[in-house]
What we know:
With 136 residues, the protein is α+β, with helices and mostly antiparallel strands.
Amino acid sequence: MKQMAARIFVASLVVVAMIGCRAGGQVYEVKEAPIQTASGKALTLDQVQKAIIDAGIKQTWIMTPVKPGEMIGEYNVQSHQIHVTIPYTTKNYSILYKDSSNLRYDPVKRTIHVNYQKWIERLDNEIKARLSAAGS
């Protein structure tokens, strides 16, 4: 009976350790994603900026224009915070890691909380959808 209890205890520790180790994802960045519209029409820099801001609002990001062709995105969820730099032109855009709080970022290994990639992918997909619709 003691051996069975010991096995259950060890198995429980393994499960707890696996749940607690949610940092190991690589930092995901979008680099020079091409801007494509449904109509094929080119967008102005202002239209690209508006699409990125609207995408951020839809995904509960705070978008702050820094200068023409660049903005900072901020995402807050529970006790986590992300800042990304979003450089953009009329041809492409990027989403680049800037800094974060409470996401176990390791600058040497370039690893971060596994949910980071999901949050960036959602933002990227929303930006693509807004840019595609903007040319219509």
